[in-house]
């Protein structure tokens, strides 16, 4: 079933119109994005009028909540800083795996020793 020449012409016209509209709108979208980035940058550089004179609390001691430690904020805009001891957690995991391997090896050695003793008792 062949396409009609009028349908092909209409499809080519639609495709051309779509390409032209995309080509014209791309620079406008880029300009809008740049303007919004400029506004965000300016807003971040301006000091906040709401909380003038209020600085981070230096005397607050860290609070432990399970494996997390809540530390006082260090940068502007932070409310709380959470510290997670990744190194300690990884070390504990490796120690746990090593302990499990040791228990498994000891149990296997105990079974081999018992089997060897039974084998020796059968022979004598």
Average pLDDT score: 79
As residue ranges, the low-confidence spans are none
Count of alpha and pi helical runs: 2
Number of strands: 3
Strand order of the largest sheet: 1-2-3
Instruction: Provide the helix percentage.
Output: 55-70%
Cα Rg: 36 Å
Distance between the termini: 94 Å
Strand content: 5-15%
Shape: flat
**Order of SSEs:** HEEEH
Structural class: mainly alpha
Biggest β-sheet strands, sense, barrel: 3 strands, antiparallel
Write a concise keyword list for the protein shown above.
single chain, 124 residues, mainly alpha, 3-stranded antiparallel sheet, 2 helices, 3 strands, 8% strand, flat
Question: What features would you describe in this structure?
Answer:
With 124 residues, the protein is mainly α. The chain has a domain of 37 residues. The protein has two helices and three strands; from the N terminus they run αβββα. The protein has a three-stranded antiparallel β-sheet with strand order 1-2-3, with no helix packed on it. β1 and β2 form a beta hairpin.
Short description:
With 124 residues, this protein is mostly helical.
Reconstruct the topology from this structure.
Blueprint: H1 5-45, E1 63-65, E2 68-71, E3 81-83, H2 86-123
Antiparallel strand pairs: 1-2, 2-3
